Amino acid sequence: MIQKRLGVILLVALAGGVAAAQQAGDLPVKARIDAFFQALASGDAAKYEAMAREHFGPDFLARRTPEERKQMVERVRADFGTLSLGGVQVRNGTATLQIRGTTGLEGRCELTFEAATASRITRVAIMVGGPGGDEGPGGAPPAPVNPTMAPAQMSQALDGYLAPLAASDTFAGVVLVARGGKPVFEKAYGLADRERRAPIAPATRFNLGSINKILTKTAIAQLVAQGTLALTDTIGKLLPDYPNAQAKPATVDQLLNHRAGIADFFGPDFAKTPKTQFRSNADYYRFVAPKPLLFEPGTKSQYCNGCYVVLGAILERVSGQRYEDYVTEHVFKPAGMNGAGFFQSDRFPSDVAIGYTRESPQGPGPLHSNEQMHGASGSAAGGAYATAADLLAFDNGLRERRLVDAKMTAWILGGAEAAAGPRAMGDIGIAGGAPGCNANMESNGAWTIVVVGNLDPPNAVRVGTAIRRALGM
To answer: Where do the structural domains in the chain lie, given as residue ranges?
Structure first.
């Protein structure tokens, strides 16, 4: 679907820049743009690396290591989710690709090409925001902070930055910034319940959306570390009664990396099903497991909520506990995530933020509750609730190796196992987004940024991204 749409857009866009395109070699430019976008949109670092070796100029390729390119791909995937292409323009040897992610974040990629027949790529820049810069519909103004600021100075600057966003109703939530695992700024903005005019507080609990996936990944890592599960184990081995035989060859590793082809639960069937029927991961599993595969396991990479629902079922089968109980006991408690939980939307605790969305079947409209757009509870793919401080506690628990051993901690963080130290280093960039909820956590071991909100994406992601960039992460 994306490939077909991309080809049409490129033909139209290149028609407006024929002279520049022909100067750089018309066909190679189109082929390289297509290869670049497909590799980036796959979210697969290995595919991106193979593309870079084929389509990047040698000097540009040498400027970054494969590990740095891998981290970039993972960062884009964390910020944007699954990418779609809005349009392409080519002028004077530079192509600008307008992109949008399933988190709601918008941005653009700029590719510069050699002024030669080979027309290899000599520069890649990925920017958050609309066509005019950071202050586009998907971006936020640059955050007026830097990593050298004293805590009091940073707090004053961030409050002055965030208060106008909240006053204009483009942000509602909690922002927390920590250095070395200790908060230097935490403040709440906006309303948790608009009907009651109840304000958001630092202790307010928010829907985390797809941030659940790293909680599920951590739980799986614990079982791998214990030797009760292997990444090469298949669905057929772990769930022999799985109702779709074509899915049984899929491995735990493929499920974790969105390569198993499991169907999503979102779609027309989910929209017309009463949401009270989804009260546990087991309910989502019964809904997803019988559905036809999207593709043969291992042949493609596509963002996959269904993959994580199946991982939740595997977790239940191997551990003998409900998914929700296992994560509460083995992730929330040892991390010190005292406010986190799996709540039912028809009996929320009083300190849970109500989600508000402008989405409706008729198109964008006034803000209204998102209650009928999500299951009554979440799944292993998304939908747990937590405070901003809970996510900082998770980051600290992971980096202090209280959740899993050093080897699997390094695996979660995407790097080699480091020498023993007080904090494991490595990048985490995770986000969750759906109608009426958006959450974002960015951490490199030195700085941690947590933003949780109860408006449509990119309510939280654009704020977290702006602060991350200002701190040079």
So the answer is: 2-128, 206-470
> How far apart are alpha carbons 235 and 217 in whole angstroms?
16
Averaged pLDDT of the chain: 86
CATH code of 2-128, in short, is: 3.10.450
- Mapping DSSP to helix (H, G, I), strand (E, B) and coil, where does residue 72 land? helix
**How many of the other CB atoms lie within 10 Å of CB of 31?**
15
Place of tokens 């909680």: 215
DSSP conformational letter for 85: E
Q: Amino acid identity of 242? A: Y
Closest by Cα among 392, 391, 370 to 436: 370
Q: Is the pTM of this model over 0.85?
A: no
Contact in structure between 121 and 56 (CB atoms under 8 Å): yes
Q: Would you state the structure tokens that stand for residue 382, as one six-digit string? A: 């998304």
Residue 51 pLDDT level (bands cut at 50, 70, 90): very high
Enter the tokens of residue 394: 């998770």
What is the structure's pLDDT at 24?
Answer: 32
- Written as six digits, the tokens of 443 are 């951490």
Write phi, then psi, for 189 (nearest 5 degrees).
-140, 140
| Same topology between domain 2-128 and domain 206-470 | no
Nearest-angstrom CA–CA distance, 27 and 21: 8
Give the whole-angstrom CA distance, residue 31 versus residue 201: 51
pLDDT of residue 433: 87
Model confidence at 269: pLDDT above 90 = no
How buried is 99 (Cβ within 10 angstroms: 0-12 exposed, 13-18 middle, 19+ buried)?
buried
Q: In what order do the strands lie in the sheet with 121-128?
A: 83-91, 94-101, 106-113, 121-128
Q: Are 255 and 287 in contact (CB under 8 A)?
A: no
CATH code assigned to 206-470: 3.40.710.10
Three-class SS state of 249: coil
Q: Smallest Cα–Cα separation from 386: which of 195, 190, 214, 265?
A: 214
Contacts of 380 (CB under 8 A, 6+ apart): 212, 213, 216, 281, 284, 308, 309, 311, 312, 313, 315, 323
CA-to-CA distance for 197 and 177, rounded, in angstroms? Answer: 26
Residue in 249, 239, 379, 245 with CA at minimum distance from that of residue 308: 379
Q: Has residue 112 got a pLDDT over 90?
A: no
Task: Please say whether the beta carbons of 266 and 209 come within 8 A.
Answer: no
Beta carbons of 202 and 387 less than 8 angstroms apart: yes
